[in-house]
Amino acid sequence: MIVDILALQSFYETPLGRTAQRFVGRALVDFLRGVKDARVLGLGYCPPYLRPALARAERVNLLMPARQGVGHWPSETANLAFLADPLMLPLPDAAYDRAIVAHLLETTEDPDELLHELWRTLAPGGRVAIVTPNRRGVWARVDATPFGQGRPYSRSQLADLLARNSFAAEKWTEALYVPPIASDAFLRTAGAWERFGTRLSAPFAGIIVVEAVKQAPRPIPARVARRRLTFAPALSPSPAPAAAPAPLVPGTRLRAGAGNRASPALSIGDEETPRSG
User: Fold this and answer.
1) Which of the four CATH numbers 3.40.50.150, 1.20.120.10, 1.10.1670.10, 3.30.360.10 does domain 5-214 have?
2) How many CB atoms are located within 10 Å of the residue 166 CB?
3) Which helix (H) or strand (E) element contains residue 81?
4) Which candidate, 125, 66, 127, 73, places its Cα nearest to that of 100?
5) pLDDT by 10s per residue, the chain, length 277
6) 152-4-231 Cα angle (round to 5)
C-alpha cells in the first residue's frame, strides 16, 4: 500500500512527524555534507530530509511516485519536483551523483527493479542513502504513521537486496528509538529514548538508514523484462470503406467479368432470334 502525498504532508506537520524528521535527519547529516557541487536526486517523499541539499548541491530534483501524487517543492522557489514511475525513471544514465530514497522502498511493487533503475541513473561511484522501516522496530507495527505501511526490512534483507543489484553497503545507522506515541508530554522524552537506544545499539529502532555506493561494472542479471508502455497517435488514418455492391434488381443475374455488373436475365419465350443476312 502506498501512502498518498496528503497523508504524508499531514503526518510531518504533527508533533510526532516533526520528531521523526528531527531524528531521521540527524542520521542523514554526514551524507548531506557530501553533496557539495553534486547532482542530487530524491526518490519518494523526501522534502523533510532533502532541503539541506538545496544550498550546497549543483542540482536537486525530487521524483515522487505517480501513485503517491506530487506537490510543489520547495514552496518558496521554482518547482523542483516531478511525477513519474520510479520503476521506469525518465532520466538518462549517470545523471546524478547522490540519491536519497524515503517512503518508497517499502511500498514499491518491485524493489529489485527500483534499485536497477537507481543504479542506472547514478554516476560511477554514486552514493545512495535509503530510509526504510526496521522490521524489528515498533514503528513498523503501528499503522497510524507512514512508517507502518508496506514491507519493513531487516539489515540482512537490505544487504542482500543491495548486493544483488550491485550496491555495496558502507554505513548503517538506526533512528527513532522513541515509540510512536502522539502525546506532547511523552514526546518531550524523545531525546532520552534516542540517547539510550544509540548507546546500547538497541534492536528496536524504528528506522534503518543505509548508505551504499554503486559498484561497476554491473553484472547482467537474469531479470524478466518489464513491459513498457507504447503510445499510438489518437488520430490515425483509417482505410477508405469498400464500395457497397449495387443492389440486385428482380429478374437479373450476375455475369462473370465486367466488374460483376448485373445484366438482365433471359427467360423462356424471350430467346434471341438470329438475324438474317
Assistant:
1) 3.40.50.150
2) 18
3) strand 81-84
4) 127
5) 568 899 999 999 999 999 999 999 999 999 999 999 999 999 999 999 999 999 999 999 999 998 889 889 998 889 999 999 999 999 999 999 999 999 999 999 999 999 999 999 999 999 999 999 999 999 999 988 999 999 999 999 999 999 999 999 999 999 999 999 999 999 999 999 999 998 888 888 999 999 999 998 755 554 555 555 544 455 545 555 556 565 555 555 545 444 444 444 444 444 444 444 4
6) 105
Per the listing, cell 508496506 goes with 150
Three-state secondary structure call for residue 62 = strand
**Which residues, at least 6 apart from 277, have a Cβ–Cβ distance to it below 8 Å?**
none
| Three cell numbers, residue 77 | 522557489
pTM of the model: 0.78
Which amino acid does the sequence have at 186? F
How many residues in the chain? Answer: 277
**Which cell numbers hold the place of 129?**
542513502
The three-class DSSP label of residue 248 is coil
Strand order in the sheet with 39-44: 81-84, 59-65, 39-44, 96-102, 122-133, 207-214, 167-175
